[in-house]
Design goal:
CATH class of the largest domain: Alpha Beta
Strand content: 15-25%
CATH architecture of the largest domain: 3-Layer(aba) Sandwich
Amino acid sequence: MQTITRRGALTLAVAGLAAPALAQPRYPDRPIRLVIPWPAGGSADSQLRSMGEIAGRALGQPVVVENKPGAGGTLGPMTVAQQSRPDGYTLTQMHLSVLRRPFMMKTPLWDPIGDFTHIIGLTGWLFGTAIKADSRFETWPQMIAYARANPGRLTYSTSGIGTTNHLAMETIQELEKIELTHVPFRGSNEGVTAALAGQVDMVCDSSAWAPFVEAGTMRALSVWTAERAARFPNVPTLKELGYDMEVTSPYGVSGPKGMDPGVVRVLHDACKAALFDAENIRIRGQFDMPLVYRDTEDYRAFLVQRVEYERAMVKRLNLSLDG
């Protein structure tokens, strides 16, 4: 029989305590990749970059941004869901188009709940409609009157087919019994460029248009928040224009399915602290982005509920990506 001395037993005990620490390195121990599904320079890109930079300092590792636009803002999240390990080192922006788009496909490519680990709810967008300063329209009612008299003649840009702003414009056309021509782009900045160049009549998107309205080269016809935007006190809301609509499209951060709850907790806490940091508050104020913070449990519950709403909207408007 082998005899274990007191010193030997102590050595084994210490080794047993040390083994898990060696098997489970501290998280994070390398850079974290944050996939933003829009071109650089827009409001969400600016907010998420700021949050990532602040969170990276607390985490002790940089948060590296990768812009991956396409497919109405869903290419990036889809890639993360399908190709990334659930180790906490690849994250993406989760927005409402990611919930909606599978219901627009004959064969859905992802499950918006089951294929992701949802971490935190953050903020939303200031959406609105803006035109060139020298446009024939002075007001929203003038635009509607022209559209009614000229079906299909007016064009508007959004950041993609099946995005929240696209659905809002489809709803408005349905309510007004008018026909507009939709011109989708990969992001709001591209739509603003097209409007300024006269390639489309108006941009209906998040607030990439705001600096141009302030500079006097564009004019805002409406904002889609519950109250008038502080920067544009003379611009009416959709509710003031007669529509029972409020469109802010709240978004958050998610990762691939199967992430460790402990890692999720670390990421939630770092992102929450960054969201409430003065610099990120300043960025959100610059774009009039409303605070829509939800913790991990509440954010997942919100998304589960919202998926059913999006499914019903796609069916009601008969939206399809399959022609």
